[in-house]
Protein 1
Amino acid sequence: MDASLFNLINQFALTWFWLDVLAIFLAEYFGYVLLFSLLLFLAIRFRKYFKMIIEAIISAILARFVIVELIRWIWQRPRPFVENNVNLLLTHNASAFPSGHAALFFAVSTIVYLYNKKAGIFFFIASFLICLARVFTGIHWPADIIAGIVVGVFSGYLIHKISKKF
């Protein structure tokens, strides 16, 4: 099922130039736009959103650099382009499971959602587009993305619950 879903999404890569450019932008650069948007909360209402920013940073670090790396150390899974003929728009090295991008951006999205529902929905949609683009460009399996989402949402909720106790 993972390969079938991957092929369904990746089959459109290298078909239309504009779609390839959009996918590369979403997969590689849109995350910076999302993180910059996070900083806008500080510019708008520093006191109200400072705690949210701190939680988002801690949950992103926990998700991407602790949990994802621990899982990758235990279980290494090659990226789709390593063992298959795919429509490849980007390359990366190292293991792909779980997706570090999905974990990081969904951890941030979860925290934002817990503080501001409307902005959180925007962050979740943006994070989903980043993840979809990473499958489209040939660097992640759908299961990598799903696992990263689970790690990210878990990290966000965990850090938020711990933060509430202190």
Note: The mean pLDDT is 92.
Protein 2
Amino acid sequence: MNSRTLPLIGFVLLVILLIVGLKISDQKTLIPSPLINKPAPAFDLPILGNPEQRLTKESFLGKPYLVNFWASWCVTCRVEHPVVTELARSKKIIVVGMNFRDEVADATDWLEQFGDPYDIILRDGDGRTSIDFGVYAAPETFLIDPNGIIVFKQTGALTPEIIETEILPRVAAMEAGN
């Protein structure tokens, strides 16, 4: 083996490793949440733009609801926004916006620019509630049943397919009492 083939072999091995890595990352894998089928974490948060009014987890008991963690600095949240807007317009489920680690002015400017699809928006300014939910990047969305139990988690942007195949069938089952 001469001195030129060793670097070439190393390069080819790196390319193979890169291709294998890209193939693995292309496979859509769900990140399981340890909170599935467990009670949603407790929270007591102010409403965005109205810090005197606060809501807790108990404020939402009795009906299924979707908690969508978002922020003005989140690029993927912009991609997801039309999907969240369409779901909220359908009135098939309560959509709670959970604005986290964001400045109030930035969040309200973002909502003015792109529209406010949420039934209510809570402000998790310090990110403690997002940590309790296990959120590590926006957007993340949780479907919570009428008893306050997390039944589904979506890491990353919601899509029409996820809403049709994962969220709405679960909501229909809850309403049917299953």
Note: The chain has one domain: 32-176.
